[in-house]
Amino acid sequence: MNPLLDATERDLRLHAYVDDQLDPAARAEVEAWLRDHPEDAARVAAWRRDAAALRTAWAWTERVPLQAELDPAQLRRRRHARQRTWMGMAAACVLALGAGGWGGWQLHGARLQAERAPMADAMAAYRLFATQDAALEYRDGASDEARLRDWLATQFHDAVALPDLRAQGLRPRGGRLLSTPEGAAAMLVYEDAAGSRVALYVRPLAPRLRAGERTEDGLHARYWSQGAASYALVAPVAALARTRG
Q1: Which of 18, 34, 125, 158 is the most buried (most CB within 10 A)?
Q2: CB environment 128-149: b (16+ within 10 A), e (fewer)
Q3: Which of 1-5, 117-121, 163-167 ranks highest by mean pLDDT?
């Protein structure tokens, strides 16, 4: 690993090593660096222990079934069955432009970093919007999950399949449409009985993500690609620690 890298670049490279995101040559460079830098080696070992503990806390997401009514093909048929008026189409365009103007620019810096850090935009969206009800553009009836799903189906360009999080004690709080260079993205915010919030972030595939997870500044994200979209579940590390007991 290049010794001239600054601390931020070095940490990004080390995180990529822990997440198994490096090619063989880059991985060999990092391993050589760790042999000569025991302090960094100790940090990497600690990150791996934390990741293992958090992986246990997130294990339930691998067993969450997809709701039948959220099958992508079914959502696509429902969306195409709706007959939209020109006025409705114009309103949708205004909404998309509004979301792009605020959410898009707010996430601009994160998207630049996302080329190096998977789902950095999801973490940025959580910090900006997830903890503030006023920042969620859809709140009316958000506690009714069916209405929240309908809102997503009408706003998101491509049909997506969402996990059913009710069995995990998570109730919906609202959603927000965002803009990315690849197209529209959406964030759905859920809350548990303790008041901690989990965000499910959905954006166009471009490119396909290898399933993984990472922790950054007190937030943990688990991400994957499925069908025509990429997903991330984002939550505070402290909340996940409570679920471990």
Answers
A1: 125
A2: bbbeeeebbbbbeebeebeebb
A3: 117-121
- Rounded Cα distance, 111 and 169, in Å: 31
Radius of gyration, alpha carbons of the chain: 19
* Sign of the dihedral defined by the CA atoms of residues 27, 32, 33, 34, in that order: positive
Are the C-beta atoms of 153 and 79 separated by less than 8 Å? yes
Query: CA–CA separation, 171 vs 148, rounded Å?
Result: 11
Cα–Cα distance, 243 to 228 (Å, whole number): 31
Task: Kindly report which listed range (76-80, 128-132, 163-167) carries the lowest average pLDDT score.
Answer: 76-80
pTM: 0.53
Q: What is the pLDDT of residue 146?
A: 72
The closest of 138, 107, 102 to 125, measured between CA atoms, is 107
Per-position DSSP letters for 142-171, written without gaps between them: TTSHHHHHHHHHHHSSS----B--GGGT-E
